Amino acid sequence: xxxxxxxxxxxxxxxxxxxxxxxxxxxxxxxxxxxxxxxxxxxxxxxxxxxxxxxxxxxxxxxxxxxxxxxxxxxxxxxxxxxxxxxxxxxxxxxxxxxxxxxxxxxxxxxxxxxxxxxxxxxxxxxxxxxx
Length: 132
Hints:
It comes from Pelagibacterium lentulum. This is DUF3168 domain-containing protein. It holds the Pfam family Tail_completion_gp17. The protein is an alpha+beta fold. The protein has helices spanning 3-18, 73-86, and strands spanning 26-27, 38-50, 55-67, 98-112, 119-131. It has a five-stranded mixed beta sheet.
C-alpha cells in the first residue's frame, strides 16, 4: 500500500470520529443523496523523498468542508475542529506500516459557490511519513 493510500485509509475514520459537526460524513466520493454538512478528501499529491539514511514521503491533501447554511459560521466551525485535530498532532494519527513525522495545516480558505450558494472551506494539510 502506498503512503498516500495508507494515510487516506487512516485519515477518513480519524476525521469521521473527530469532526462532530459533520456527523461522520467524511467522503472520498460524495454520494448523490448526502446530507450537509460534510467533509471530502480531495486533490492529494504524493512526493517521494529519497534520502541517504531513510526514505520518506511528503503528502499534500486538500480537505473540503461543505455547508448549505447561508452564512459561513458552520464551515468555519468545522474547519476549526479539523485544525485542532490535525495541526501538529502527528502522534494522534496511526497509519499502519508508517510513522507520521509531521502533520501541519498550511492554510484554510473560505468561499461561497456562485451557482449553488454553498459555503466551502478548503484546508490544506501537509503530512510527512516514512515506512516503519
